[in-house]
Specification:
By secondary structure, the protein is an all-alpha fold.
Length: 71
C-alpha cells in the first residue's frame, strides 16, 4: 500500500487537534495538582466557602411568642 503524495489533513485540523491535546494536558495537570494537594493537606478543605471545620457556631435560641387571646 503506497501512500499518495497529497496531504489529506489540513493545517487547520492539525492546529485544532494540537490545541485540544494541550487543553487536555492542562486539565489533567490541574486535576493531578488537586489530588496531590488533598493528599498533602487532608485536614484543609479544598473550597473555603463551604469549609465549616473548626467554625462551630452556637445554636440560636428560639423564643416563644405569645399572642394575646383578645386580639
Amino acid at each position: 500500500m503506497a501512500s499518495s503524495g497529497k496531504k489529506k489533513t489540513t493545517m487547520a485540523k492539525l492546529t485544532r487537534e494540537s490545541r485540544l491535546r494541550e487543553r487536555r494536558q492542562d486539565k489533567q495537570a490541574k486535576k493531578d495538582a488537586r489530588k496531590q494537594a488533598l493528599t498533602d493537606h487532608p485536614d484543609q478543605p479544598d473550597d473555603p466557602l463551604t469549609a465549616t471545620a473548626g467554625t462551630e457556631q452556637p445554636a440560636l435560641e428560639t423564643a416563644a411568642v405569645q399572642v394575646p387571646a383578645d386580639a
